[in-house]
Amino acid sequence: MKTDNLVAHLRTAGLLKTQGLIGGKWTDAYDGKTIQVRNPATGEVIADVPCMGGKETNDAISSAHDAFQSWSKVTATERSKCLRTWYDLLISHKEELGQLITLEQGKPLKEAIGEVTYGASFIEFFAEEARRIYGDIIPATLGDRRLLVLKQPVGVVGAITPWNFPLAMITRKVGPALASGCTVVIKPSEMTPLTALAAVELARQAGIPPGVLNVVMGNAPDIGDALLGSSQVRKITFTGSTAVGKKLMAGSAGTVKRVSLELGGNAPCIIFDDADLDVAVKGSLGAKFRNSGQTCVCANRIIVQEGIYDKFAEAFSKAVQNLQVGNGFSEGVVQGPLINEAAVQKVEKFVQDAISKGAKVLLGGKRHSLGMTFYEPTVISDVNNEMILSREEIFGPVAPLLRFKTEEDAIRIANDTNAGLAAYIFTNNIQRSWRVTEALEYGLVGVNEGLISTEVAPFGGVKQSGLGREGSKYGMDDFLELKYVCLGDMNRK
């Protein structure tokens, strides 16, 4: 289906929204400015959306603040029902939402629909958790008192989300926020705003009241400054680069906001000599090349023990060679384009740096013949810790192979980074799996598995990969305040 036909289909389905949402009303930028949303696979313009800034954001904050007064008092049961209805609508429209993701982000349609299912799972999970926000009773130190702990919503939340998972990164934040009784101002990436707008349209249809969810997009610095400067915004939740996360953390200090940060990674994938080769190849392939390598938990360094290095390199390269690259709507495609030209240039820079320092290209290593922002799935051997490939996030379809001798070497190499989001190990030795898992300085560890994200488990990193956790029962904590109440004896004279 051509882009024009897809756009027409999505518009007919009521899911192609091209305005921001403030106080329940679809809104243009106040100065009329727009930005173009393009299909990265073809370069075609999908839609024009408002280029909003500080004024629109301040109005969205006011709207969320007003709505908080009522939404925070809605019973947990009613909030749960709204979220459950939203989940049902997301699932019933997963085909259209998947098409929208592929149009504006580029990932293969099957993978995009998988993201919708994954993203919707957070809404379902937190619909259930909304009814499980329990307080506590503390044994009193004096007989005439009762000591209680209440959990209450923090208030208005500013949610800033990236382009690589335009639905799931929103639902993972908005689900617990709404379940807790918070209201939200969402700032999606200007490269992928259409999925966010479609999702909040379905939230409106689910009965979530006006002002509870607001969406502004456009001038990122102006929007960010408005969110940071407002005393009505009590929490910032962000997924993106470490550099931007640091700025948001510093900017939040002025009003002492809560901050949740899910930042960059430099994930090691350690393959031990005793690993099952087929399992290691399959797991590493999934961990590295999902979403064309554009995820923060992608295997950024594949660290292979010397006894299995050559066999693994050969088998892995053969598997990578079979990956079909193309437009995400084409049958059989498993790798789409990178998000834009800057992303391709970054990958090229990293690869050239590695080659100049002695690395060898086993497969790929250049732009794809399809043109645009397509890049060949690439495997590079003889990589070391001095190369940029090992030090910084690639965010592209390039798999660097590093060699190690001992278990201690693997742990040292893996931990030699400021990042600490995800790590993977492949071994058939159960004792080793425990030792290495506990020694790795990472928030997530996959053992003999390359795809580990799920709504029921906490997601987040250590060191400079962020603060807080998303998903699971722990994902509610950052949206709730603890209030201690001391009840004296009302009959005491």
Automatic annotation (TrEMBL):
Gene3D superfamilies in UniProt: Aldehyde Dehydrogenase, Chain A, domain 1, Aldehyde Dehydrogenase, Chain A, domain 2
Pathway(s) the chain acts in: Amino-acid degradation; 4-aminobutanoate degradation
Location within or outside the cell: Mitochondrion
Domain of life: Eukaryota
Catalytic activity: succinate semialdehyde + NAD(+) + H2O = succinate + NADH + 2 H(+)
Hydrolase keyword on record: no
Any single GO BP term: gamma-aminobutyric acid catabolic process
Pfam families: Aldedh (PF00171)
Keywords: Mitochondrion, NAD, Oxidoreductase
Residues the record marks as active site: E262
Enzyme Commission code: 1.2.1.24
A GO cellular component entry from the record: mitochondrion
Ranges for domain Aldehyde dehydrogenase: 26-485
Tagged with keyword NAD: yes
GO molecular function, one term: succinate-semialdehyde dehydrogenase (NAD+) activity
Primary location: mitochondrion
Binding partners and assembly: Homotetramer.
Family classification: Belongs to the aldehyde dehydrogenase family.
Name used for this protein in its record: Succinate-semialdehyde dehydrogenase
Species this chain originates from: Manihot esculenta (Cassava)
Organism phylogeny: Eukaryota, Viridiplantae, Streptophyta, Embryophyta, Tracheophyta
